[in-house]
Amino acid sequence: VSLQETFQRKELWQLNNPKAQAITKLIRKTICLDLQPYCIVEDKGFTRLLNNFAPNYTIPSRKYFSTKVIPLMYDTIKAKVKYELDQADFLSLPSDGWTCQHTIQSYYSLTARFVTQEFTVKHVILQVTHLPESHTGHNISKFIYEALQSWEIPHEKIYAVLTDKPANLMAAIKESNLGDKHLPCLIHTLQLCIQKKIFREQRKASDATAIF
Q1: Cα dihedral across residues 172, 177, 179, 184: positive or negative
Q2: Looking at residue 209, what is its pLDDT?
Q3: Strand order from edge to edge, sheet including 182-184
């Protein structure tokens, strides 16, 4: 090993170094794709791995990732999705809510389905929001309104809003002035029909058994 190579190995890369930026982007992808916490950049095993394969690379702090790297990626991806939404002629917007079994926290989501100018079907998640307050029609309507405002989606571009049919969601759709766009989820409707049919048959069987 030459003296020059020894110094090069010990020289730390600046954050704007192309090689350092490439590694930072890979860490960013790891955090997002694997749903890793920001503190992974401080884990001993993770830092040892990077120090072994890239000794010239200084791992940025988790604050750097949480305040700069990830937000920048979010803005970049949102701009790309926004452009695709703007180019689409019409959008179908499925919306649903669910509760996490582990934390008992409730969330609502709004997604978009559309066909691009190249006739490619796209499906993107527009917004997922924690909804700690009561799931009233007004609160859900507020979530839908804020999501549409955030993405600047005009009413005339919405072809359909797809949901199941609980009373609070129906009230939310009506309050959002999307009643004329609403379509019930076909799969959920079929599920309800099947469940009711099975329940009725089970009840008939129970009644018949009770006679004897």
Answers
A1: negative
A2: 56
A3: 121-130, 106-115, 91-99, 158-163, 182-184
For residue 8, what are its two tokens? 């090069």
pLDDT digits (tens, 9 = 90+) for 25-34: 999 999 999 9
Q: What is the pLDDT of residues 124-149, one digit of tens each?
A: 999 999 888 888 888 999 999 999 99
167 token code pair: 């009373």
pTM of the model: 0.74
